[in-house]
Design brief:
Layout lengths: L2 H5 L4 H7 L5 H20 L5 H8 L3 H4 L1 H24 L1 H20 L4 H13 L3 H12 L2 H32 L4 H20 L13 H24 L4 H23 L7 H4 L2 H29 L12 H29 L1 H21 L4 H27 L7 H29 L1 E4 L2 E4 L1 H23 L25 H5 L1
């Protein structure tokens, strides 16, 4: 793509912005901040879920839609936002996503019943696409020498925002009106919008082609079908027509969608690129990382908050339980520069392998350490340590194996795979913990055997991720304009900064 070709997309105002020097530190800070804000939306309502039935006068099953819809919206919107970013400019799409989060916060903040709350939460969930778009912006803007650390930092926000946001949400839910949650989220998203507008340069590296509307609709229907069936299977019944219909129907739609994508000249996701061994195995490993990370947010809070009278629980409040999980997010943040250095020295594959192995060890320890509060802090920290390395590695592996013009769409697909893993973890561990219970008086909680089985399943999932990672090629033949060419690939390949120029 020549400079003249790129320039035809730019307005006079955008050309003027390009002539201004780029503050790379401000770019990294802005994208990390917006990543934290949008990740915060995913757990914003989690501490309040038990009270929604009374606050909104709805059933427990209906109240869970306020959480489920956010997950579904994130999964569907992320690859679509990535493709739109590749076509029309990543900065522009980031701004649109932040506007959706602001609008969603306003709608949810003014709601007094379930339907507008669900609408607002869906709009908030759409904002999660900011994170893979931010990673792709870094690739376009930063010098290669600074890219690894910045990618690790922004990637980590997916876990950090959720973990650190939990105690904030718990405090607001416990001491203030619950609508203040959305006031905070709206203000943060608005601040992120201002920062992006001021510090992020316009995108000049864009794909040719048109937006695949049919592909976007097909992917949305397929993903919603599978994720909805998996997430609601516990309440609908795994053998019920609704569960089987949504899962099987979603799978059929995705197969037809894949056949269509292979034949369309401008696909939403280039499946030939996605089928490259490095991309495919990294995405499969991402499913296991998403499973293992979300497993800690499913099992550990229940263990912490269950009454001690059951002989299993640790009897902590919602706020204390959230604080016990917060080190998981903080360690992800702290490990991002370490993971970047390891990636530069030994490669992203090594960083991913180490991260998933640490997660597996953490869950093996959890099988035997679940009787003290500090045990849960240790396990959460170990999982955060491993996820920090894994999240830092996956975007680098993806971008080293895809064309420079498909970074946002490819990173978006990788985020969808993590979301799929999280959804499966929620469903599988929900069944495990609800099927293995102990009752003392009127209190029923998961049993010790239930928690141990949940930790064993999580360890096995991480072990499968290790196997996927082992088979990721150490080196591969790069595209002529690969996003991040490997050092051992074609000699003379330009770095990302040169390609974006």
């Amino acid at each position: 793509m020549t400079d003249d070709d790129q320039g035809q997309w730019l307005s006079e105002a955008e050309r003027a912005r390009l002539r201004q020097p780029t503050n790379q530190r401000a770019v990294v800070f802005t994208l990390a901040f917006t990543g934290l804000v949008t990740a915060f939306m995913m757990t914003l309502l989690t501490p309040l879920v038990p009270e929604l039935t009374e606050l909104l006068n709805v059933s427990v099953e209906d109240s869970l839609w306020a959480v489920t819809v956010t997950l579904l919206a994130a999964a569907v919107s992320t690859p679509i936002a990535g493709r739109l970013g590749d076509l029309y400019g990543k900065r522009r799409v980031v701004l649109v996503l932040l506007v959706l989060v602001i609008v969603g916060s306003v709608i949810a903040g003014l709601s007094s019943n379930l339907v507008p709350l669900i609408v607002g939460r869906a709009l908030q969930g759409a904002g999660i696409g900011v994170i893979p778009l931010g990673v792709s912006i870094l690739r376009d803007v930063l010098h290669r020498d600074r890219l690894g650390g910045a990618v690790a930092l922004v990637s980590a926000t997916l876990g950090v925002g959720g973990a650190v946001g939990l105690p904030i949400s718990a405090v607001i839910s416990q001491y203030l009106d619950w609508h203040f949650l959305f006031l905070v989220s709206g203000v943060l998203a608005a601040l992120g919008f201002v920062l992006v507008w001021k510090f992020i340069p316009v995108s000049t590296l864009r794909s040719e082609g048109t937006f695949d509307v049919v592909g976007a609709i097909g992917l949305g229907i397929g993903l919603v079908g599978i994720l909805l069936g998996v997430s609601k299977g516990g309440s609908w019944g795994w053998g019920s027509p609704a569960t089987l219909g949504t899962i099987v129907g979603g799978a059929v739609v995705l197969v037809l969608w894949g056949l269509f994508e292979l034949r369309t000249p401008s696909p939403l996701i280039d499946l030939r690129v996605a089928a490259r061994r490095t991309v495919l195995l990294t995405n499969l490993a991402s499913v296991t990382v998403g499973f293992a990370f979300f497993a800690s947010t499913v099992a550990l809070p229940q263990l912490l908050e269950a009454p001690t009278a059951t002989g299993v629980g640790l009897g902590q409040t919602m706020l204390i339980a959230s604080l016990c999980l917060m080190p998981s997010g903080l360690i992800m943040w702290a490990m991002s520069p370490v993971a970047a250095r390891l990636t530069r020295a030994r490669g992203a594959r090594t960083s991913l392998l180490l991260g998933i192995a640490i997660i597996a060890v953490g869950y093996v320890l959890a099988v035997f350490l679940m009787s003290e509060v500090w045990h849960t802090v240790l396990i959460a920290t170990a999982v955060g340590f491993g996820v920090g390395f894994a999240y830092a590695a996956m975007p680098n592996l993806i971008m080293s194996a895809v064309p420079a013009t498909e970074t946002a769409a490819s990173n978006g697909l990788n985020s969808v795979m993590r979301t799929l893993g999280s959804t499966v973890a929620s469903a599988v561990l929900g069944v495990v913990l609800s099927s293995n219970v102990v009752t003392v008086g009127e209190v029923t909680t998961p049993s010790a055997a239930g928690f141990q089985l949940a930790f064993i399943i999580s360890a096995v999932a991480a072990g499968v991720g290790v196997l996927f990672t082992v088979f990721i090629p150490r080196h591969h033949r790069a595209y002529r304009q690969a996003s991040i060419p490997d050092a051992d690939d074609r000699a003379g390949e330009a770095g990302p900064a040169a390609q974006a120029a």
